[in-house]
Specification:
The protein is an alpha/beta fold. Helices cover 42% and strands 14% of the residues. A seven-stranded parallel sheet has the order 3-2-1-4-5-6-7, sandwiched between helices. A seven-stranded mixed sheet has the order 16-15-14-17-18-19-20, sandwiched between helices. Helix 4 (106-122) runs antiparallel to helix 19, helix 14 (343-350) packs across helix 17 and helix 28 runs parallel beside helix 31 (756-765). The radius of gyration is 34 Å and the shape is elongated. It starts with a helix and ends with a helix.
Amino acid sequence: AQCKCDLRRVETKYKCKKRDATVRIVIDLQGAQSYSRLRGIGRYSLSISQALARNAKAHEIFIVLNGILGETLEGIRAHFAELLPSGNIKVWDGYYPASSHTKANAFRKSANELLREAFIDSLEPDIILITSIVEGWADDIAVSINRIINRPTAAIFYDAIPMINPEKYIHPEGKIFEEYYYERVGSFQKTELLFGISDSSCKEAMQYLHIDQAKIVNIAAAVDTMFRPITLERETIQDLKQKFGIKNRFLLYSGASDERKNHKKLIEAYAKLPETLKQEYQLVIAGGMPTERYLEFSKFASSCGLKKESVLFTRIVKDEELVALYNLCDLYVFPSWHEGFGLPALEAMACGAAVIGSNNTSIPEVIGREDALFDPFDAESIAGKIAEVLQNESFRQELIRHGLKQSQEFSWDKSALKIITALEHLFETKSNTANNPSKRPMEYQQLLINSIAAIDAKQTDKDLMNLARCISSNHRPQEKKQLFVDISELIKEDAKSGIQRVVRSILAELSTNSPAGYTVEPVYAVSDRLGYHYAKELLLARERGEEIELLDRSRIDVGAGDIFLGLDLSPGVQPKQKLYYQILKEHGVRLYFVIYDILLLQNPRWWPIEASIAFERLLRETSSVADGFLCISKSVAEDLCQWLTSHTTMQLPQINYFHLGADIQNSSPSTGVPENGSEIIKRIKARPSFLMVGTLEPRKGHAQTLEAFEMLWSGGKEVNLVIVGKQGWMVEELAEKLRAHPQMNHQLFWLEGISDEYLEQIYGAASSLILPSQGEGFGLPLIEA
């Protein structure tokens, strides 16, 4: 499907621009990664981007994220799992620290802006949409417009509050912040389109940013579907009220705690209510706030003559708790004196709350009813409107009905369609094809190098070295996706065990018959270092009989759509790579691990105690990052699912299974026959011979089988017992008994560490296989025999 999409793009991109042409829209979604993710801007950025993906029609949507803020990537990817192919979420690598509040970061900040632009340009966008431009003051966000590229760019504009009130929001922060803020705001001048989130914000863009009205589109906002009327169980209500100290009916406010939100006027207005209303209703102020603000507001409430239990501050509230509070409150009051939109008021209305609010900026647009408004600068006005609603139940019910209907006028899909329509029109009228011919990766690198060299800021060799790494990562010349096959144990030493035979077999088959669109790359990790390295050259060197050394070289290059297959698990490798697996996931690599069995957890007595502990750690660490587990039988898959369900609280990754093969000749078999190999084969063929294949370990049943054959031999039975497998753990006594056994090399044969070539001859010579094991993940010798 993706190939068809790409083909359609080639066919339409260079035709005459028309309404149904495919437009490639690249969305810079850093607004959902920065500190803004904890505020309304972050929620808005994410919601509108999801809506754009839902309503994209024939257009291509790409999401671009900042790899420096890696902890946010997985969550954002999850929001688009059902909306976009994983390959449409792109991550660019930057170098940190690069926040604007420290002058020492100036070079890295500027370089990151160039890295980001070049990365976005390599995606060949028709239009770039930035969800939040004013970012990067306190975190490592990089935003710029056309410093080194020339692509039509649109941006979302929330409000001009700091510009309108510089004495409150800009001057107290100092000159560095002032320079940062006006630089960010100046970027809006470079946009082709500006999307205001309300009519009020659009007017502010014209008045304070001096943006032409023709370039501004009001796209409004909406609320998540979770905000709706719900029925709560009595026990749930009691628990919620007990948690927040709510004992009576209550008024509610929710949101941030900065000055424009007008907490003090709300508290003052509550204090002016008739005593009967204050006794019947508490004021609940919901949402996290700094401790100093909590102490300030508590002290102010006390100065207004209010008791501590009259005004409640909830601190941080979970989304589901906020929905419940909206549903339970008798009245929601929104006293803010300046909003770009006023999302909390809409959330409350969507939940069926009666809502009143300020009569300025965007709030009247959201509430949509004049008699539900008050003067936010006048405590008497606020108190009067609160009392009017609480003392007139028919009016309160009317507000509830109005709010539910009004909230339906706003939807993210409607907002997204307005954006798409505007972008289509921009695409029709603005062609950038001639100015932006496709560049090869080396051209991007040279452009970046020249631009970085021109940055007039202090830099170090370390800076340049790390930027070189970023450029290499962001512009790798790779046509096919990669399937990384982890053979960390095999590359270190071929233990000639059943698992190692499986690893060789699957690697050989994947290499011979690569999945369409993928290059198969065997890789390995050095246990004491983070990261993986390409192993193909080392495997070839080993085949030539050369000594190999596992050096820290040839690190893998990764990209969205690659797959990592943990085929060769070891407690000494994978748990130490958990951080690197997170990095892989951040770059859009899917992670799968092969599980051979979980017997170490089901029957730990069969292993040294430290082995079970190490394996449990291995399973927990891999399950925390895995997209899926591939088990070697249905039985193992069921056991794994049951264990993860019982021992972890996380959402289960995908769990599936496959069966192993019996064709030893196609397993990249080890070769070689011992000098006495032919003689042993003759002895095996001379009488009925029973074969056991597998490492000597407690669960395999070697001791019981030997005892059974000793009974047969003492009864005069002419039968052979042939054991193939090296000595394992906790079988020292058995191994000593075998080596000193009187029947050794007569009717008892123990062949340690033989090649696959010789094992196949043994299979052919034996009369029957015995598999008395008390537990197997698959039982490979069964089908081989």
